Amino acid sequence: MNKQKNEKVLIVGPSWVGDMVMAQSLFISLKQQNPNSSISVIAPPWTRPLLDRMPEVDEGIDISIAHGELKWAERRAIGKSLRSSGFTSSIVLPNSLKSALIPYHAKIRNRTAWRGEWRNLLLTDCRALDKQAFPRMVDRFVGLAHPVSKNPPENIPRPRLSINHENVDKVLERFRLSKGPRTVAICPGAEFGKAKQWPVEHYGAVCAQLISEGWRVWVFGSTNDSPAAQDLLEFIPRASASEVNDLTGKTSLAEAIDLMSVADAVISNDSGLMHIGAALDKSIIAIYGSTSPEFTPPLADRVKLMFTDIECRPCFKRECPYGHLRCLKDLEPSRVLDAARGLIEP
Predict the structure, then answer these.
(1) Of 22, 80, 210, 319, which sits 20 to 30 A from 134 (CA to CA)?
(2) Nearest residue to 118 via CA among 138, 97, 134, 139
(3) Which domain, by its residues, includes 80?
(4) pLDDT for 205-218, tens place per residue?
(5) Residue 216 sits in a domain of what CATH number?
């Protein structure tokens, strides 16, 4: 992309939380290249708590169109409403045709994206993706900030969410929690599907052992993850139950970020919360089932990647095609505990 001194960039952002966290690497790269640039990100409203914690983003623009909906007329109207905003370039991160409609109807001069879904005519810089050369999602995002190349840029910046410590104290008070050493964040859910969710009995075994070693457990997730959190508690001895705080379905995304910022470590499936933990520079024990850390690794300094080597993974399916979920069930709690002990300072 041709960088202008006062360039104003519109990013069509991802709809998934984890993908939006990784998109921060692109925003940082753009600011590194041109500190005078202005970055606006158009994305679903639920991603706003993430954008608010990315200092590189100057403006968040909500798009209230459900994930997967075309709504051609609505996208055209949004695009036309942005024509007076002075955008000089745009980058489209999702691969769909519909995601390229808004910059096209906004008549933004430079419109960059990877090729996908017959949208070539909507773009001015439509690039062919070599998946072997750009293996990670973050490589593909950041690559769009640079001229066409056969290889991803070197020294890709890692996402780092900012934290307002006054807000952290307020959220701790609201949930009657306290700062302190030896707090582990447990994230047993994954919106993608069951093929990314480590069995709750395995999580329960890990939590019970960590509690016996002096750890407090905070369980994070959405309302959809509350049944898993309740099942997990069944594997905790009654005498230790007070050391577990089930926060699933009780916090907003912003509050979850604030609370996770004071945890010492995160044990999580491959999920949006895993990427949030990484962007908060936590110690991460990342559990992979049907997906692969070669595509969406947590971008943190202290990471243990946990997966099995059975021949059918990674399949990238929401549900196990064979019904056995061995990629997750065969990953024993003892392995995760050993990884956690090796990663977390005593």
Answers:
(1) 319
(2) 97
(3) 8-143
(4) 999 999 999 999 99
(5) 3.40.50.2000
**Residue 199 above 50 pLDDT?**
yes
| Dihedral angle computed from the Cα positions of residues 269, 270, 271 and 276, in that order, rounded to the nearest 10 degrees | 100
Evaluate the omega torsion of the peptide bond into residue 314 and state whether it is cis, within 30 degrees of 0. yes
- CB-based burial of residue 140 (10 Å sphere; 0-12 exposed, 13-18 middle, 19+ buried)? buried
Q: Distances from the Cα of 140 to the Cαs of 12, 26, 198, in angstroms?
A: 14, 9, 28
φ, ψ of residue 242 to 5 degrees: the values are -70, -15
Helix H or strand E encompassing 174: helix 165-174
Beta bridge partner(s), residue 264: none
The predicted pLDDT at position 194 comes to 86
Tell me, yes or no, whether 170 and 129 share the same domain.
no
For residue 345, what are its two tokens?
A: 């300072």
Determine the pLDDT at residue 2. Answer: 47
Q: Is the pLDDT of residue 222 over 90?
A: yes
The model's pTM is 0.94
The residues, ordered by sequence, that sit 6+ positions from 22 with a Cβ below 8 Å of its Cβ are 137, 138, 141, 159, 275, 296, 299
Integer angstrom CA distances of residue 189 from 76, 163, 224, 269: 36, 24, 8, 7
